[in-house]
Design brief:
This protein is α+β, with helices and mostly antiparallel strands. It is built from eleven helices and 13 strands.
């Protein structure tokens, strides 16, 4: 582990706790700070360049003046007269406005604030000094890299100009018996630099303002989208599934969450609808066997014939066993028997159903035959086995003696399908027999259970008239 890993984890953890609007605001502030820092660094670099330019100009001025001094400037100080000093003063005055070719005067510098004007001072051993005495008395700061005699002077307002302060780069060197100070006023900022500063400041303000505006907009948009999601969930909690989470156009950041919430609400609405339908179907299907069992028990209490009492008791017991079996099937459907989804071959389930019901069918001379092609669905094997078994069980109960039952599995192009056809009296879409076969007491719970299983697997059941008989088809989407 590198030594930076703990710090990096702290940084990422802190970032993970920030909202998107906070991050956007932070980025905008950081961008503005970075621009300000860049401006300061650029300003320092420009200031250094301006000082260097002023130093070079001051050195050139000093060389030009020294080369034009009379030859006897270097006389010993003890031999210099006041006349010599007056001559030197007049010579300095001739060069006070700078060497030939300079266009910026000290008056222009004081009026406009632009640099470039030349400043001079000469002190002779005798007589009065000439030039700007401030250059001799001001505090000097040595500038490294430009020579041992180059200095920076910071002149306050009133020392050079009445209302302005300037920086001045000067060269201090003796020339014979004379002490000379020659300098240039540093340009505070050129026109291009001022425009650059203004553009950077405006850009920084624009970035900061747009970042804060974007953060505010994102925060409001997210808050509104989350409020919509909360409303949808609150309504779903009380059974109202009419509202859904907002689409991606309202809050793209929540598109995945919105999609997941909507899928969950769709599934919950589907399950609740299935529960309501299943409850209605169970209530309808249980009513008949319960009423039949109750009637047989009443007859059992009234009859004195032992044979009739035995028959009624056996029939009532069978009704109660059928109800118990239906309840067990409903409980298995609710629990899903662990709901382990796997690939299940419908053709193999059809063959297993034929093997299971063949002995019962042979007693009545019914022929059961399975055909079709290998086709698979994704589902719970035990529930699908019960569904196929219930379809075959109903077909056997309603088929006449000597009838034919055909079980077929195939791929219909849209998914897998399995059908069970018989030669009985036929059925309606509700699953009730049009005219039950003699001696059959099916209470209709089988088809309701099959329909519920198919819904749990995303499938559906259809009942068609085979003339004679019925064809019950279970279809599973691909």
């Amino acid at each position: 582990m590198t030594p930076f890993a703990p710090a990096w984890r702290r940084v990422t953890g802190w970032l993970g706790r920030r909202t998107s609007s906070q991050l956007a605001s932070g980025l905008a502030v950081m961008a503005a700070v970075a621009l300000t820092g860049s401006l300061l660094i650029t300003g320092q670099a420009a200031r250094l360049d301006q000082r260097q330019q002023a130093a070079l100009a001051a050195l050139a001025d000093f060389g030009a003046m020294a080369s034009k001094l009379p030859a006897d400037t270097g006389v010993d100080a003890s031999a210099m007269t006041e006349g010599d000093a007056a001559y030197m003063s007049a010579f300095l005055s001739a060069f006070q406005d700078g060497p030939i070719g300079d266009t910026t005067t000290l008056e222009e510098t004081c009026r406009t604030g632009r640099g470039g004007a030349g400043v001079r001072f000469i002190r002779a051993p005798v007589g009065k000094p000439a030039g700007l005495a401030t250059l001799e008395t001001a505090r000097a700061e040595r500038l490294p890299g430009l020579g041992p005699d180059v200095y920076l002077l910071r002149l306050a307002p009133g020392q050079l100009c009445t209302t302005r302060g300037f920086e001045v780069i000067v060269v201090k060197r003796p020339v014979g018996a004379l002490s000379m100070i020659v300098g240039r006023v540093v340009d505070p900022s050129g026109v291009a630099w001022r425009w650059a500063v203004l553009s950077v400041v405006l850009t920084g303000a624009l970035i900061l303002g747009s970042g804060l505006a974007a953060a505010t907009f994102a925060r409001r948009r997210l808050t509104g989208a989350i409020a919509e999601v909360s409303v949808a969930l609150d309504r779903a909690a009380v059974g109202d599934f009419s509202r859904r989470a907002p689409d991606v156009a309202l809050a793209p950041e929540l598109s995945e969450l919105s999609s997941q919430v909507n899928r969950t609400l769709d599934r919950l609405e589907e399950l609740l609808s299935w529960l309501r339908d299943s409850a209605d179907q169970l209530a309808h299907d249980f009513r008949t066997p319960l009423a039949r069992a109750s009637a047989r028990l009443d007859q059992l209490m009234e009859t004195e014939d032992p044979v009739e009492r035995r028959r009624l008791g056996e029939e009532a017991g069978q009704d109660l066993r059928d109800i118990t079996r239906a309840m067990n099937e409903a409980m298995a459907l609710r629990d899903g028997e662990a709901w382990l989804f796997e690939s299940v071959r419908l053709d193999i389930l059809a063959a297993a159903a034929v093997e299971l019901y063949q002995p019962i069918a042979e007693i009545r001379g019914i022929e059961i035959m399975a055909e079709g092609e290998p086709v698979s669905v994704l589902g719970v094997r035990s529930l699908l086995q019960r569904a196929v078994a219930n379809l075959v069980d109903n077909a056997v109960k309603f088929s006449p003696d000597g009838g034919h039952i055909r079980i077929r599995a195939w791929d219909d192009g849209d998914g897998a399908a399995l059908s069970v056809s018989d030669q009985g009296p036929g059925m309606s879409e509700g699953g009730a027999s049009a005219s039950p076969a003699a001696g059959s007491d099916s209470h209709g719970m089988g088809l309701a259970f099959v329909r519920a299983i198919l819904r749990r697997h995303g499938g559906r059941m259809t009942i068609d008239d085979a003339r004679p008989g019925a064809i019950v088809t279970a279809r599973f989407p691909r």
